[in-house]
Please model this.
Amino acid sequence: MRRNPFSGRRTTILAILITIIVLTADAGIASAAVSGSFSSSYDGWNDGSSSDARGHEIQVTGTIEVTGDSAVNPRIVIQGADNTVLDQSSVQVFVEGDRSINFDRSTRESAVVYRADEVPAGTTLRVEYRTYYIGGADSGDVTVGEVNFNYETPGGSSQQESFSTQNALENRPENVIDSLEQQTDQGETLSTAQEILSYVGILAVIFVILKLGLSLVRDGEDDDIDI
Model:
């Protein structure tokens, strides 16, 4: 049986056509993207601060923006971190501008979850929450909270964008205690030095008195000899 010389070419052409169709279909699907930024404030033991986060509350605020050409159906998870615990009652999600979106709110262990059927592209969400520092962090910046924005792309794949927030927590209890201990050590050293100096001063006074006494005795002896 003679082989058709065009069969291999037909297969190759068919594969190319299928690839072009798939790529064209993907290009026609509207894209979606998510971005955001967060900041935090913490007073700690700083009594002189006048920020909204009083005492050991860590105030976290930020925005999440949905961009691209397609809406998303998000599940937003707000939670604390390894060294913080979330104040669930403080969590709030707002829609900036005139747009209105209904969210379903639920709690899960130490997290708060917001769900919405649709968040259109061009929407900016404002997220606010508070956490409490529970100790155990090493030196340097501490992750104080995290927001995970989960959604599905128009193509059906799942995506997640995570927005964590760091803070130096300079006035956290460990740092304040270390500073007080250093001051105490310096104070004890100064106190010891003052005690030593006071003893030296007393000995010096005693030495002067003894020297004056000996001088008086010698002067008396000299007077007796002169007589």
Remarks:
- Residues 173-226 form the longest helix (54 residues).
- Helices lie at 7-28, 173-226.
- The chain has a mean pLDDT of 76.
